[in-house]
Design brief:
Order of helices and strands: EEHEHEHEHEHHEEHHEE
Shape: elongated
Number of strands: 10
Radius of gyration: 25 Å
CATH superfamily of the largest domain: Histidine kinase-like ATPase, C-terminal domain
CATH topology of the largest domain: Heat Shock Protein 90
Number of domains: 2
Strand content: 25-35%
CATH class of the largest domain: Alpha Beta
CATH architecture of the largest domain: 2-Layer Sandwich
Helix content: 25-40%
Length: 263
Amino acid sequence: MNPNPVEVQILNEAPEVTLLKLYGDIGLEQIPQISTLVDEYYAKGALHWAVDLSNVNFLSSPAVGAIMGLRSRVVSRLGSISLFAASPRLSEKLKLMGVNFAIPSFRNLEAYLAHFRWEYKGESRELNLILPAKSAVVPPTRQLVVGLLRSKGYGQKDAFIMESIVDELANNAIEHGKPVDGVFELKMKIDKSKISLTVINRCEELSEEAQKALIEKYEHPKVNQDSVRGRGIVLVKKLSTKMTYRVEPQRVEVNIVRIREGK
């Protein structure tokens, strides 16, 4: 058992984060030590805190109050505080106290770091798929994209719009791209502020005239009255913040960027 119930140190995996480690039973008698260490590091500019509860058996109400007090201080300066690795029993107690409404909690350090890097370091997530060029794969692909976006905090509107864009570009690659290898590629990269999507298909060699016609399609898209969906590139261009393309004799690539609108 650690003889010192309270430790504060810089987190090696993320030097911007100050780690508050607690051990054993944290009662009223430990509050002065917590306050002294927190004040010391806060005065040095520590604005992002992670509280390690993996070795805590009991956390008193005054200790919770001290953590909530730290939250008020760092949030007022655009900082953050999170808890991680609480036991099931302690986690349930914190929920009953309503702590989870004010301070996020994570199952372990790795989960916390993923959250911190996404929220405060601009880390992105990527999805890279090679899919059969069959219409049956489009609905589950749309659902996968929506699920990923929603899991990263994107709102219903952004998810719905990206679902529509994926539907149009995937079907465009299947129906009009006519991939010679029977597959098409879908790549998505998201961060906290934007979504980038690329759809690629390899086709039979296009003549110069066919390439020019395809470029015209992307430059000046028109609604195809004979299309089942009837929206195609017109809709994609309208819903995207930016759309670019690359037409080669045997390869067509469409890229879109959409800036996040919010929840």
